[in-house]
Amino acid sequence: MTRSIGWIVCLTVLLTTGFSRAEVKQLTPGGFTVEQDAILAATPSAVYDTVTGDISGWWDHSFSKTPKKLYIEPKPGGGFYEIFNDSGDGALHATVIYAERGKKLTFTGPLGLSGKADIVTSYELS
């Protein structure tokens, strides 16, 4: 599966005063892409900073009922991590494959589907 501006996008939290449009496009049998455009009352850099770093305040899917921390390292090879506890137990939800502050962030991984899907999520900001 490939998804652009993914299925669990923090931008929906930010859309209190914006415009949103989504479209599903068929790619191949068993695969699809979802594109969502959103106009936000924020700069691209501010949105980028919201979708990276500590995302515990808005990310709503986790393996643990009470994760200690969810965060995305905004650099190539950086992880999208869920930390369960003070011991550092946790999960790697995805790996960052492109990071350009205020412009684009792309990560790939199962995002909690335990390897059952290959999901690519991209935030393209302008």
Radius of gyration over all CA atoms, rounded: 14 Å
CATH class: Alpha Beta
Total strands: 8
Arithmetic mean pLDDT: 81
Element pattern in H and E? HEEHEEEEEE
General description of the model:
The chain is mainly β and 126 residues long. It has one domain (11-124): 2-Layer Sandwich (Alpha-D-Glucose-1,6-Bisphosphate, Chain A, domain 4), CATH 3.30.530. It is built from 2 helices and 8 strands, in the order αββαββββββ. The protein has helices spanning 11-14, 44-50; strands spanning 19-28, 31-39, 53-54, 69-72, 79-83, 90-100, 104-109, 119-124. The strands form 2 sheets. The chain has a 6-stranded antiparallel beta sheet, covered by helices on one side. It has a two-stranded antiparallel sheet with strand order 1-2. Strand 1 and strand 2 (31-39) form a beta hairpin. The longest helix has 7 residues, at 44-50. Residues 1-19 have low confidence and may be disordered.
Provide a short characterization of the protein structure.
The protein has 126 residues and is mainly beta. The chain has a single domain, classed as Alpha-D-Glucose-1,6-Bisphosphate, Chain A, domain 4 (2-Layer Sandwich), CATH 3.30.530.
